[in-house]
Design goal:
Radius of gyration: 28 Å
Order of helices and strands: HHEHHHEHHHH
Number of strands: 2
Distance between the termini: 74 Å
Strand order of the largest sheet: 1-2
Helix content: 55-70%
Length: 263
């Protein structure tokens, strides 16, 4: 089954449940009550200590005690150019390898799909490779935005001697963000328009439309984005130089203070 087919099945079942008759609803509830009663009888046969979940994983296992709740959903990793390419052809290859939709895929068949996709990727055209890379870059930027908006939960104290990610990133505090490319500037404009005109499009579908429109964009309009990108790069170069000089000065101050303390 493809993801789209499974979604269609789920939607159809939900519609059927919404319009279920009172008689069938009563039958389902009676059956659920009978199953629950059977479960309680089986449960009574076990001692309380046997019903506790076993907590596997000793050292190195993250402490799951949350001190402060997080905000937002944890973003998924950005898709690479190869994964984007596989998304385009996976369903087609799966149907060729496994024609019977009523039976499950075997491990050997899944291996065939993976091998064929890898072989197709080796011989991908220059044009399609460029499209996949542009989509991957757009996914990466979207992931960065989602990551910045996400506030992870604060867990109980971790193992001693380990540095937290925040401590490791303190040295990069205030570092200027990388400038956007001409394509990313165009993509942000195009994505905003698509969200208003066709809000049902998925992120992957939107990326494909953006990639296609960028390819068909006139040189004159492309040059407008190129000039804007060049201005951002120049601002970034100056900001980065200022940031590096500030860090060097701060480091020299700390070193000088240490020398005085020793003296």
């Amino acid at each position: 089954f493809t993801r789209e087919e499974m979604q269609a099945v789920t939607t159809k079942l939900a519609t059927l449940w919404k319009n279920v008759s009172p008689v069938e609803l009563g039958e389902c509830k009676d059956q659920a009550a009978a199953m629950k009663a059977e479960y309680e009888v089986l449960k009574a046969q076990f001692a309380p200590g046997q019903l506790k979940r076993s907590h596997k994983g000793g050292k190195g296992k993250r402490n799951t005690t949350i001190l402060v709740e997080g905000s937002g959903d944890k973003p998924k990793r950005a898709r690479t150019a190869y994964l984007i390419f596989c998304d385009r052809y996976r369903n087609q290859i799966m149907k060729e390898v496994h024609a019977d939709p009523t039976s499950k895929f075997t491990r050997e068949e899944m291996q065939q799909v993976t091998t064929r996709l890898a072989d197709m990727w080796k011989h991908v055209s220059i044009e399609e490779l460029a499209q996949c890379k542009m989509e991957a870059e757009l996914c990466k930027e979207e992931y960065k935005k989602q990551k910045e908006a996400y506030v992870p939960p604060v867990y109980a104290t971790a193992s001693k001697g380990k540095k937290t990610k925040k401590e490791g990133k303190d040295k990069d505090s205030g570092k200027p963000k990388r400038p956007r490319t001409a394509y990313l500037l165009f993509a942000e404009d195009c994505r905003g328009k698509l969200k208003k005109s066709v809000p049902v499009l998925s992120f992957t579908e939107t990326s494909r439309v953006v990639s296609k429109e960028w390819k068909e964009l006139s040189d004159a309009k492309k040059n407008q984005y190129v000039r804007t990108a060049e201005k951002e790069q120049e601002k970034h170069r100056i900001a980065k130089a200022t940031w590096e000089a500030k860090n060097l000065a701060a480091g020299a101050g700390v070193l000088g203070g240490g020398q005085l303390a020793v003296a």
